[in-house]
Fold:
Amino acid sequence: MFRLCLLLALCCTGGWGIEAEQQLKLVPIIKSLAEQKNDGSYFFAYEGADGSYREEVGIVRRSKNHMRSADDEDVHSAVAAAAAVAEDNNNADDDDDTELEVSGVYSYIDSDGKQVEVSYVADKNGFVPVGTNIPKEISDAARNAVQSLEVRAGKRS
Structure:
C-alpha cells in the first residue's frame, strides 16, 4: 500500500512540474511605448512575440467647477486661454477634484489556441469590460450600472 501511495505521489508531482514548466515560458516584448504627462495622464502599449498586446490610456479630468471658461473670466485671446489651461494643468497635482478615466484593450492566445480580446473603460462610475471571453450579460450589466450612476449624478447637478 505504501508503494502504491508513493508511486501515485511521484506521478502527481511529476505531472505538475511539467505543467508549471510550460506556464513559465517567458514571452519577449517586441514593442513597448510609454508616455506620462505632468497632470498624471498617461499612455502605454506593448506587444509580445506571441501576438499578445495591451494598450491603455489614462486621462485626468478636472471637475467642472474648477475649469476656466471665457464666461467666468476675462479671457481676451486664445493665447491667454491656453495659458489658463496650462496653469490649470500645472496645478492639477494640488487639486483634489480630479478624476482619472482609463480605457484600454488587451489580447492574448488562450490555452485552446483562440485569440481573446478585452476592451475596458474605468472611471468614477465603475469598470466596464467587453470581450470575447466575457459573457455579454456581464458587460451589459456593468454598462447599465454605469449609465444608472450617470443619470443619478445628472439629476443632482
